[in-house]
Amino acid sequence: MIKLVQNEMMKLIAKKRLLVIAAIIAVLVALFTYAQYKQVETQRHKLGTNDWRTILQQQIIDTQNRLSSSRISDDWKKQLKVGLQQQQYYLDHNINPSEPGAPTFMRMFLENSIDLFLPLMVMVIASDLVSSEHSLGSIKLLLTRPVRRWKVLLSKYITLCLSISLIVAITGIISYLISGMVFGYKGWGAPVLTGFNVTNQGLGTESVKLLDQWQFLLMDFGLVWFVAIVVGTLSFMLSVLIRSTAAGMGVMLAALISGAILSNMVSSWNSAKYLFMVNLRLTDYMKGTAPPIEGMTLSFSLAVLLVWWAAALAVAFWVFTKRDVY
Amino acid sequence: MEKTTLSVRNLKKTIGKKEIIKGISFDLKEGEVFGFLGPNGAGKTTTIRMLVGLIKPTSGSVEIGGYNIENHFFEAMKNLGCIVENPELYPYLSGWDNLLHFVRMLDDVGEERITEVTQLVGLTDRIHDKVKTYSLGMRQRLGIAQALLGRPKVLILDEPTNGLDPAGIREMRQFIRFLAESEGLSVLVSSHLLSEIQLLCDRVAIISKGKVIRTDTVEHLLSNREQLIWSFEPFEKGKEILSSLTKTEDSGDGFIRTEYESEKAALWNKQLVDAGVKVTEMNRKLPALEDLFLELTGGDKID
Ligand SMILES: Nc1ncnc2c1ncn2[C@@H]1O[C@H](COP(=O)(O)OP(=O)(O)OP(=O)(O)O)[C@@H](O)[C@H]1O
Ligand SMILES: [Mg+2]
Hints:
B: alpha/beta; Alpha-Beta Plaits; 2 domains
């Protein structure tokens, strides 16, 4: 089995996919870093201070002003309220919610890339792992060896999991290194709050806990990795089912994007919470923002994703071992 | 008695509602080159895909080296090397890495076998280049090298000379004969070219529309079907003499056809020459595959 995984790795490296992905991540991180830097600059310029308390205070006032406007929707209003209460809580407890530094940037980058950007990167690898063998024709050579089909597929799946872990690690390292050049490399020990309880009434703060930033990041990474594995497994299944890489990618892309759109508008369509794509923003539960649909919690989302993962894997193996190869 | 290495029994395959293979049976013996001859769409590739386990037969059985490929896939595949249609290797890897890839899929073969097979197919100079820089002939050879890695007892090649130039075809032919005669492999070769099969194979199965019409040795199949085409001056006199000796057929364009038999041909020629007829051309012609099919299938149209 190790030899088979070696094979898959050899092919992956020869295709230079991981390099391309690392390059894309680097470019994006550089872009985000610059944007963040600009934002901090303008804010300081506007308020004439560098003190985070003043800035946070100003943000709270801004939000309150927006809330008093009647033109915004109820959903959005609720979101804002939750955010407002959270900001107030941070202010009351004298904790800076965005301590400047590379670790904070990393956290922000992870939170923003968990539902679309990282899944996309994972898809680049997962969606042609099997279908490329079909379009190349090499599947005929691969399946006429004294190796059972499920082993061939398992070696590909293990390779996928390894690459995903690598992608997540690369994301962490690159975002830390690049943003650190601008914001400095400190801030691992900064306090972060988690455990906010979002309910119909608003924000519950009974179970709020104080974590060091590095602890929080570790959990974030775990969640990001889990989401990446689930999305990777789904595109892996599509790669088995659909012989064309482009078609498989298209389907997955449509699902991911529809997820991003749906999250903003499904609050009244309750059963949509069983779709995998609205459950991808796991890090939001850590941060404590209102979920897209009432009643969604971290464990609920984890369970939904787990079911999708298991089903995709079962389908992939079932079809691959049974199907005629032309 | 020679050992049977590949045994196919009553193989059938239905795709959709269409029965594509309608019961094929044959045996391959050790050290024999077996031809699989049929027109386009006859079902050669489909049959071969079933032999190598890529598609599951609707019914019937395949045994390689005595192992049923469904119940003992692992053992059966150990005895098999194959190329189905084109040898589609990984273009972005070097020839060596491609072979390494397939060596890793075998249990008991080491890297020294790669050196051995590259030498065998004569690819040593270019083995470390990327496969995308190879010519078609080199890819075919790499394909064969790949098939030989596991020291198989049975080699299955689907149209191995596809896309090769005449020199390449000749070389491939000699190589396949060498494998069968010196290494004792059984080789199954499919083709739609009679001339190719005739020079290469010991036995042939003729297949049409998913059925084996006839299995026989090449000599049997072709004897007394070969024709001799004559041209001489003066034409009428020569025709008269030849007609008195054997059955002739005037093709209308200045040529006379007779059957071909090596001894008689010399004799007839002598008699023509003795009678003062100048023989300008004597041409031995293989029956066209179409003719053979028309004969065997009793005038069925080939589709
Ligand atoms: N996947 C498929 N679905 C439906 N029909 C198929 C499929 N594959 C092959 N066929 C049909 O099966 C028949 C036999 O095809 P096959 O490829 O085995 O022919 P062949 O003898 O290899 O021909 P050629 O000399 O052109 O390679 C053809 O009529 C073809 O249309
Ligand atoms: Mg064919």
